[in-house]
């Protein structure tokens, strides 16, 4: 497909799948996504995580149980409402995600080294926009959680 006909979203999706293919297979994509969401946006109610990931509450409960068994997440009582439990990432979970990101980034580092300096500079200038997109995604997730 020619560059003019590809949208930014299509290119980002294709690059994302390239990075995903390189990841270790110890956790499902939903478990990894849930863990990353908790890392970025803080402890979440299980129901909010399930809604954000598009899975049922029983499925999310099983995912969180797996993450707990691996020491990557933990359930904590809510400070404001003792009846509510929130899922939080552990230090081991943060380290696991950091390692996965380094592995994924290495795939892109090899490709970026093949770009011209102008192409690399162009990518670097887009970093704030990519970061903002992640913030917007977290805002959308938080809005969905407030609706429940």
Question: What is this entry, summarized?
Answer:
The protein is mainly alpha-helical. The chain has helices spanning about 10-20, 30-40, 45-55, 55-70, 90-110, 115-145; strands at about 45, 75, 85-90. Strand 2 (about 75) and strand 3 (about 85-90) form a beta hairpin.
Task: Please provide a written account of the structure.
The chain is mostly helical and 148 residues long. The chain has one domain (3-147): Winged helix-like DNA-binding domain superfamily/Winged helix DNA-binding domain (Arc Repressor Mutant, subunit A), CATH 1.10.10. The protein is 68% helix and 8% strand. It contains 6 helices and 3 strands. The protein has helices at 8-21, 29-41, 46-53, 57-69, 91-112, 117-147; strands at residues 44-45, 73-77, 85-89. Strands 1-3-2 form a 3-stranded antiparallel β-sheet. Strand 2 (73-77) and strand 3 (85-89) form a beta hairpin. Helix 3 (46-53) packs across helix 4 (57-69) and helix 3 (46-53) crosses helix 6 (117-147). The N and C termini lie far apart (42 Å).
Distance between the termini: 42 Å
Amount of helix:
55-70%
- Percent strand equals 5-15%
Shape: elongated
Write the layout of secondary structure elements.
Elements: H1 8-21, H2 29-41, E1 44-45, H3 46-53, H4 57-69, E2 73-77, E3 85-89, H5 91-112, H6 117-147
Helix pairs in contact: 3-4, 3-6
């Amino acid at each position: 497909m020619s560059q003019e006909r590809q949208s930014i979203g299509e290119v980002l999706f294709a690059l994302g799948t390239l990075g995903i293919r390189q990841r270790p297979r110890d956790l499902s994509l939903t478990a990894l996504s849930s863990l990353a969401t908790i890392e970025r946006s803080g402890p979440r109610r299980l129901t909010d995580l399930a809604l954000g990931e598009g899975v049922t509450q029983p499925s999310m409960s099983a995912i969180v149980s797996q993450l707990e068994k691996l020491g990557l997440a933990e359930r904590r009582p809510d400070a404001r409402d003792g009846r509510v439990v929130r899922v939080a990432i552990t230090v081991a979970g943060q380290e696991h995600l950091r390692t996965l990101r380094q592995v994924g980034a290495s795939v892109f580092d090899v490709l970026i080294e093949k770009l011209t300096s102008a192409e690399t500079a162009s990518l670097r200038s887009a970093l704030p926009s990519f970061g903002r997109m992640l913030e917007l995604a977290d805002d959308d997730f938080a809005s969905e959680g407030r609706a429940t």
